[in-house]
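A quick aside before the break. I want you to see a complete sequence-to-structure record at least once, exactly as it would be stored in a machine-readable document. Don't worry about memorizing anything.
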Amino acid sequence: MGEGLDIACSFYFCIDDLLAKHHFYLNMAVGISVHDTVSEYVDDGQVRIKWPNDIYVNDKKIAGILIQNQIKGKYISKTIIGVGININTESFPEELPNPTSIMNSSTKDKNLSQLKVLHSLEKNLRQRLSQMQVAHAQARKEYMEKLYRAYELHYYENKQGELIEAKIIGISEEGKLQLSTKESIKEFAFREITYRI
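That is the input. The structure line, written in tokens, reads:
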């Protein structure tokens, strides 16, 4: 990423009464927020949430998310949400596997203001986090609609290096990826499964 071309930022929020076991409500709200932000500048039909923490345009990564929660008792009390969005970088180092940017993905926005994207992201985050607990069923439906490769047959690789042909059919309450294979439905936590792209 070029210096002064993109954004990497963190937001600090106090959270009211979100059970730690429902941490994926927070992940969904943040994922949808970043998705909606990128979709303001790139054709919405191309933008997808790649479980658990990336935003893709077609098969290329345009944004990443990192969430760190502070737990108090059974509840999440505070969260730091880190977001990086590739905005104006045109070319990337060869060692990055599949990056893109808004500039490379959009016909309408060239040399987009970082401040404009940042304001949009903050607005979307505040809106989604305020609705997080009351609208989690709707958020789950929306998250699945925006999920990369949902309900499509693709290859994945498990921790043992075995290829699995499967469809993403859902996300569990704990945030695990649910894959349907010919034999069964299996759940995978973060780092237990890798997308083959």
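Two observations worth writing down. The chain has four helices and ten strands. The CA atoms of residues 28 and 143 lie 6 Å apart. We'll return to this after the break.
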